[in-house]
Design brief:
heterodimer, A: 473 residues, alpha/beta, four-stranded mixed beta sheet, 23 helices, 10 strands, B: 224 residues, globular
């Protein structure tokens, strides 16, 4: 169980919502990403067909996952790599540190990877007495800030350039930079000798090709490529869901990934490597295949399709709660709908209850998903999972009363009359500490109760509208 | 090398996957989806000239430079001019038979990179010249680095110059990738694909061409 913040989700959201400067910045960045995505999809002759094909590819991959994993691991090992199978996160950590210890690694460079975060790589490296260095720019910034990620792909995108410069200067030991170019150059210069002197590289993977045994990385910065090809030892930590049947699938998957992530054409740096490649021959290459709950998700029709994910982050940007609340409030590896659908079980019960409600189930995430994951179904399933009880006693009583009232005309009329009286009665306590909806009405105005009910209005007028354009019954 | 517990873990996970799949409904038969997906991509008109035109456009969009030489002999002049204009002094080139013969008359001293080149040596270069395994006109992607020493050289290059004959220009990314990965031998076991310079998009989501990889890309295609 993890609790990244002692603050409630509501409290963090409220802080974000009333920070208008932050809201405006977030809105600007989301608009920029949305524009890039529109341009990305516009490059397709038929974007719908491409998404359908990508979804079908990933779906077929999942349906044959056992065969594909067996094929992939055999080919990877035949090429000289070593495959480890980790049933859970603790096993994966143990395998990772064992491999690194055997290699005598002290300095370990790592890339951005949700799977590495999932198994607790940073803590494992520290506990093993190794220096784990974040080489992805965004990860480096949130590590310096001591914050959770604010986006699955852009983890530090909630910070302004001034804040990034200050973090790099105050905590990262860099000279004070003004422009993103200067900041990037400073980090590149700082990390170049680290890459050259690193004992081992630890990275995730985007895809594992079952028919060839290749590992595929798609990235923007080029740091994963350096982690993968420079150190003597390379450890790849990948979820079992990353396997895809064939290299023939790659063009469609990479093109849809790039469009959904808002890249110009393809992701700028793509590497496809097998342990017998000329350039990496003689190096120790290990691959840890992680289950850690993925087979449980695969077993349920409501959640199996979440394993299709190709990690573009489009669902977060589309989510109205994410757009308003910002990513850090979620305290997740993948803030937004995907994290809500897959990571809830990792949080403490009190936070789980709050996070389970942090979605309007509007389906915007499903709409934008490049591989057609029915995320809203997965979100409903996550809410219904044992231990994710959503409502307190007060809400349960209210819902039970509502259910009782709507089952019969007479009950409904009675219930409506009682509710009306309650709303009218609220006027008397509106500005007092006894207002039962004080929290709700703190930032909203409760509408006035109409003079008569709809049923009564209908009975009296026969449904004929009065000439008043306001149409107030 | 496997120990019994590792074999157990493999059997455990594959068993879990099989059990999970047994609970899922059988999917409907699908058509050939990779092909359907490829048909959905923007097509490039047929013919070498059309492919080269499309490649030039894509590279321009990506902020990369494109040079077209009418014959192999012009490659040396083109590269020499680039080195002078860009003040590149430490010029490295990844050894491949094609590039060695193309650069015979190249004036600046070249450090040839191969499997024996120590990685710290690569850190001192200004530019790396490499022969492309394939170039894709659909997305403007260059595929290279499969040869000995190629991947580290590409990963560390401050600026990358990619040289390709027109025969290596493919109208579709799928064809370009297939030509590299489908080739038998160790060189097909690793390929790196670049579409423009490496980018840092993390600051306010505004991409700047200042990643850890090449900060500039020049593609030089020669005819004949």
């Amino acid at each position: 169980m993890k609790s990244l913040s002692s603050k409630s989700f509501e409290r963090q959201v409220a802080e974000q919502l009333y920070d208008t400067a932050s809201l405006t910045r977030r809105s600007d960045r989301l608009a920029r990403s949305a524009t890039n995505r529109v341009a990305g999809w516009a490059r397709f002759r038929d974007a719908g067909m491409a998404r359908a094909a990508a979804g079908a590819i990933r779906s077929a991959d999942l349906r044959r996952m056992d065969l594909l994993l067996a094929d992939f691991s055999a080919r990877f090992e035949h090429a000289g790599g070593v495959v480890h199978w980790a049933p859970d996160a603790a096993d994966a950590r143990e395998m990772l540190t064992a491999v690194l210890r055997e290699a005598g690694a002290k300095t370990v460079v790592r890339g951005h990877s949700a799977t590495l975060d999932e198994i607790g790589t940073d803590a494992a490296l520290t506990a093993a007495g190794m220096d784990g260095v974040h080489t992805a720019f965004g990860d480096r910034i949130i590590a310096l800030a001591g914050e959770p990620a604010s986006h699955p792909v852009y983890p530090a995108s909630h910070h302004t350039r001034e804040a990034v410069a200050a973090l790099l200067h105050d905590k990262g030991g860099e000279a004070l930079c003004r422009t993103p170019e200067e900041m990037s150059d400073a980090v590149r210069a700082r990390l170049r000798p680290v890459f050259l002197g690193a004992d081992a590289g630890v990275v995730g993977a985007n895809f594992l090709l079952a028919d060839t045994g290749h590992v595929v990385w798609a990235e923007s910065e080029g740091n994963v490529r350096l982690c993968a090809v420079l150190p003597r030892t390379l450890v790849i930590v990948a979820g079992i869901d990353k396997v895809t049947a064939s290299a023939e699938n790659l063009p469609v998957l990479l093109a849809t990934l790039a469009a959904a992530a808002g890249d110009k054409t393809l992701t700028p740096a793509i590497s496809v490597i097998r342990p017998d490649a000329d350039s990496v021959r003689g190096r120790r290459i290990h691959l840890i295949l992680v289950d850690n709950g993925r087979t449980q998700r695969l077993a349920s029709p409501a959640t199996a399709d979440t394993l299709r994910c190709i990690g573009c982050g489009a669902c977060s940007d589309a989510c109205p709660v994410y757009r308003l609340a910002g990513g850090t409030a979620f305290g997740m590896r993948r803030p937004g709908p995907y994290g809500l659908a897959t990571e809830l079980g990792e949080h403490e019960p009190w936070r789980r209850r709050q996070l389970a409600m942090a979605t309007p189930l509007c389906g915007a995430c499903t709409e934008v998903c490049p591989v057609h994951i029915d995320l809203h179904d997965a979100l409903v399933a996550a809410r219904a999972a044992p231990g994710h009880a959503l409502h307190g006693l007060r809400m349960r009583i209210l819902l039970a009363a509502y259910l009782w009232s709507v089952r019969d005309h007479a009950r409904f009329a009675f219930g409506a009359a009682v509710f009306r009286k309650l709303v009218v009665a609220l006027d008397f306590v509106r500005d007092t500490p006894f207002n039962p909806v004080e929290a709700w009405s703190r930032h909203r105005t409760l509408p006035e109760s109409p003079p008569r009910t709809f049923r009564r209005w209908w009975k009296e007028t026969g449904g004929i509208q009065p000439p008043n354009p306001v149409n107030k019954p | 090398m496997k120990n019994p517990s590792a074999a157990d873990a493999r059997a455990l996970i594959l068993g879990r996957v099989k059990e999970a799949l047994g609970r899922l409904p059988t999917p409907p038969a699908s058509p050939s989806f990779p092909r359907a997906g490829l048909d959905a991509l923007a097509p490039v008109p047929a013919g070498v000239d059309a492919s080269i035109r499309s490649l030039a456009m894509r590279l321009e969009e990506l902020g990369a430079s494109f040079v077209l030489c009418d014959e192999p002999a012009q490659v040396t002049d083109g590269l020499s001019g680039l080195c002078v204009r860009s003040s590149w002094r430490r010029v490295f080139a990844v050894r491949s038979p094609g590039l060695v013969s193309l650069l015979e008359a190249f004036k600046p001293a070249i450090v040839w990179v191969d499997a024996a080149t120590p990685i710290p040596t690569l850190a001192s270069m200004d530019v790396v010249i490499i022969e492309a395994d394939a170039v894709d006109a659909q997305f403007g992607a260059v595929l290279c680095g499969a040869g000995p020493g190629g991947l580290p050289a590409v990963a560390l290059a401050p600026h990358l110059v990619v040289v390709a004959s027109e025969a290596k220009v493919y109208p579709e990314f799928a064809g370009a990738l297939r030509s590299v990965l489908g080739r038998p031998g160790a060189s097909s076991a690793g390929v790196t694909c670049l579409t423009g310079a490496s980018v840092n998009p993390q600051i306010e989501r505004k991409p700047v061409a200042r990643g850890h990889g090449p900060q500039g890309l020049t593609v030089l295609v020669y005819r004949g």
